[in-house]
Amino acid sequence: MEPMPQTPPEEPGPLRRLSLAELRRRTSMKWRTYPPDVLPLWVAEMDVPLAAPVVRAITEAVARGDTGYPTGTGYARALAGFARQRWGWDGLAVERTTVVPDVMLGIVEALKLVTRAGDPVVVNCPVYPPFYQFVSHMDRRVVEAPLGPDLRIDPAALEAAFRRAAAGGGRPAFLLCSPHNPTGTVHSAEELAGVAALAARYGVRVVADEIHAPLVARDTAFVPYLSVPGAEDGLSLMSASKAWNLAGLKAALAVAGPAAAEDLARMPEEVGHGPSHVGVLAHTAALRDGGGWLDAVLADLDDNRRLLTALLAEQLPAVRYRPAAGTFLAWLDCRPLGLGDNPAAVFLDRGRVALSPGPDFGTGGAGHARLNLATSPKVLTEAVRRMAAAVA
């Protein structure tokens, strides 16, 4: 009798493949900022091996000596195909795109196109700290529109901020974070259409940071801002950087709505010299051929959200956490623990776990900390154990 064929064991997901010892060999910011006894769950790097199509694109480029200057529309065409397949959006026109060094530098250049020095830029706080840093450094004023208690856009607060921004004259803008960092909120089509309507009413130009767009749970729809009615004069910044862990391979795309095409055409030609050619090749391969790998990451993140919820309920029940559908970030409300404005400092000092300090995210961040979920269940479990011990 012939033996039954054996089913090969299922390969573990990307977040389960690397040991802590392997990860500590990395020399990036995540692994070199703190001493080796600290578990780093702060900066937005993922603990994953690179997707095979990305590795192939990079190694083949190096083997060819193909390390010159970037050119062509391959990245934009790959993003347009990804948007069509993943989001059902057929409105990303390659001719209304341009390559920029990365999303934040692209945001700076986009804001320069639609605002002038001294103009106000509205943000939904708490929000990604570089929004404050980059906007201030380019001589614009930050105007805060706090999220609601449900961590979603509060239309009344946004309208009040738009009214204040428009009252001073000038050319106000709204820097939209979608999906939102640090909360992980994925804005709905209705919410985004409401943003567009308010922006039109008050003469506010919208620049959308959509870097986390591919990182949305499979039961939730990501809605590109430029796809909603009224967003025709918007600008969006997109990249494969976060979803495929390519921060060190610089490349992103600025995308214009139909009514913003002339604005984008004024982007200085030298901005396109900043992206890495190898980065463009890597991002293109990720968007074109890395969908299966991304699906495996999304499944791992779903598991980690459930795991974190269970771990906190068991060991740190006072910490309030709402699992979100977007990003690989967890926004922890630690105020009931009585650890002051910066609980991350306590977890680092007493527990040797590095989180991102809540106060860095602006109004609404005090008493909070941001945790990076893109790690193995083993590391996540040990991190919560240490955090609980730190406040015991």
User: Average pLDDT across residues?
Assistant: 96
In whole angstroms, the N-to-C terminal distance is 61 Å
Secondary-structure element sequence? HHEHHEHEHEHEHEEEHHHEEHEEEH
Which structural class matches the secondary elements? alpha/beta
Radius of gyration: 21 Å
**Shape summary:** globular
Count of DSSP helices? 13
The biggest beta sheet reads:
7 strands, mixed
Portion of residues within helices: 25-40%
What is the spatial order of strands in the main beta sheet? Answer: 2-8-7-6-5-3-4
Written description of the protein model:
It is globular and about 55 Å long. The chain has 13 helices and 13 strands. It is of the alpha/beta class. The strands form 3 sheets. It has a 7-stranded mixed beta sheet with strand order 2-8-7-6-5-3-4, with helices on both faces. The protein has a 4-stranded antiparallel beta sheet with strand order 9-10-13-12, covered by helices on one side. A two-stranded parallel ribbon has the order 1-11.
Topology readout:
Blueprint: H1 20-23, H2 29-32, E1 39-40, H3 52-64, H4 74-87, E2 97-100, H5 103-114, E3 120-123, H6 130-137, E4 141-144, H7 155-167, E5 173-177, H8 189-202, E6 205-209, E7 235-238, E8 252-256, H9 261-265, H10 277-289, H11 291-315, E9 320-321, E10 329-333, H12 343-351, E11 353-354, E12 356-357, E13 368-372, H13 377-390
Parallel strand pairs: 1-11, 3-4, 3-5, 5-6, 6-7
Antiparallel strand pairs: 2-8, 7-8, 9-10, 10-13, 12-13
Helix pairs in contact: 3-10, 4-10, 7-8, 11-13, 12-13
Q: What are its keywords?
A:
seven-stranded mixed β-sheet, 392 residues, single chain, 13 strands
